[in-house]
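Sequence in, structure out. First:
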Amino acid sequence: MKATLSQSGVSSTIKVKGVGTMPGEELTTESIYVVCTKDIVTMADDLPRIGTSMPASGDSKSFIKLQRWLTNIPLDRRVEKNLVYHVAE
């Protein structure tokens, strides 16, 4: 399998093991939401962990919990980034 990460007009392709497309699909798009803080922050305990549940979408309870957790961190004390990558056979 190969994964392609595109960020700010720059694209990188890497070969990886242990990942795959969704069943019956030739291409799957996934994302990782990264939050970096200037201070130590306690992670919300009730957010789903990678590989344990479906991802948080805009109308899910997990998405709302994530947004509530983020509001406790001042905007000038955090940076957020959504990294999108594609997995192809």
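Second:
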Amino acid sequence: MRNWFPPDQADKIAKRFMDWMKNNPPDNSIDKNLGIGVTSDENGMILAISLSVIMKGKEKEALELATKQNLFMASGIKGFKYKSEITLDFPEAYKILGLAAPEV
């Protein structure tokens, strides 16, 4: 998941995220967070990137949860934008092609 917001909204974002986490603790039966990184983009916006592993068969639930979180975060935060994506790891992508992934 990627979130963009103006630097002057950082305090509000941090507080909203803490509120979300307080009322929505992680559900490791749906996904497991691997980490969150923060940087800036070419337009000066803060970019927060979250990477998670979605449990087998839980794609729908993971997208619903991400959407709810993003809508919660966006309410009252001027300039907040988000994008949720599901990407496959290397071996999963090769499985779809009917191939075994080479060692890298």
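Remark: The CA atoms of residues 38 and 51 lie 12 Å apart.
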